[in-house]
Design goal:
eight-stranded mixed beta sheet, globular, three-stranded parallel beta sheet, Rossmann fold, alpha/beta, single chain, binds succinic acid, 8 helices, about 25% helix
Length: about 300
């Protein structure tokens, strides 16, 4: 039987509260990934290995952890005896780590990120079922690509995003819709596995990613932040625009100024669904279906 490697990074799935009815006042990233696995009897039928890559609340996710994670994922994917990888992660930045790994590795075997909205100590904790579903998914011989599996739903890592602050079914895939559902250990697949060309591990391991910032358009927005970022030496700015990539006039002028000075600018949208469909001759390029945080990662990886 091929192995599944479970890489722990922390999150609420590894969180602990003082009482079982406390799903809010807990501390994330307390329980070792090996102990999370040991607490699920149904996992004993799999050949598993665990490795603690980090132990953080994912609001504190860092580029150093991303580099370490990409390196460990690539290492284990290079082994013939490994069928797939599961990563336990906090929900808050799971979509960023998923997009990052998708862009740098685009693996031909499954790399499944999972998480939980309730701490491991909660009555009705969701982590154990999410972890079991993710292991079942990563053991499927046909599975491939960076995936996210939470609340019985499977998303492509290139599309997943957190859309709820509290509910256990906190993720969706935007307009693309979910890739499928885990039902009693089996995948009911609705569409094709994630596609994509990997930029390569070398991009992931760079220690000199350019600074890229996100600025939001909103009522009364002016260009002061953009000018300040330019003075600070930022290399790229993603505008979280209104609607289909629109910007208030002062912010648009500031972004055009920044672009003329050599700063890369991309227009994304602050709206949860849809895309920015800008024409090729738009003065400020559109980020298409990329969310603001995805567009930021894209610029960080692509800028020299
Ligand atoms: C985190 O993102 O690490 C904390 C919140 C969560 O996992 O739901």
């Amino acid at each position: 039987m091929k192995r599944i490697v479970i890489l722990g990074t922390g999150g609420t799935i590894a969180g602990q509260a003082l009482s079982v009815d406390d799903s809010a006042g807990y501390v994330a990233a307390q329980i070792a990934v090996a102990d999370l696995v040991a607490a699920i009897p149904a996992l004993t039928r799999f050949a598993l290995e665990t490795e603690q890559v980090a132990q953080v609340d994912s609001k504190d996710m860092s580029f150093a952890i991303w580099r370490a994670l990409a390196q460990r994922v690539a290492h284990h994917l290079g082994r013939d005896d490994v069928a797939g990888i599961v990563i336990t992660h906090g929900t808050d930045t799971l979509e960023e780590t998923a997009y990052f790994l998708h862009r740098v590795l685009a693996p031909s075997r499954p790399v499944v990120l999972t998480a939980a909205m309730r701490p491991a100590t909660a009555l009705g904790a969701d982590g154990p079922q999410n972890l079991l579903d993710s292991v079942c998914l990563s053991a499927l011989p046909e599975a491939r690509g960076v995936l996210a599996c939470v609340a019985g739903t499977v998303h492509a890592g290139s599309e997943v995003r957190k859309t709820h602050t509290w509910r256990m079914d906190a993720f969706d895939s935007g307009d693309a819709g979910p890739l499928g559902y885990m039902e009693a250990g089996a995948l009911r697949r609705l569409r094709d596995w994630p596609q994509g060309e990997a930029l390569g591990l070398a991009h992931a391991l760079r220690t000199d990613w350019p600074r890229v910032d996100i600025v939001m358009n909103c009522a009364g927005a002016d260009g002061v932040l953009v000018d300040a970022l330019a003075a600070l030496g930022t290399r790229g700015i993603v505008a979280a625009c209104t609607g289909n990539g629109t910007l208030g006039a002062p912010l648009e002028q500031a972004l055009l100024r920044a672009q003329r000075s050599g700063i890369a600018v991309l227009r994304s949208t602050r709206v949860g669904r849809g895309c920015v469909s800008g024409s090729p001759d738009s003065a400020l390029p559109a980020a298409g279906t990329l969310t603001p945080v995805q567009a930021r990662i894209e610029l960080m990886l692509r800028l020299p």
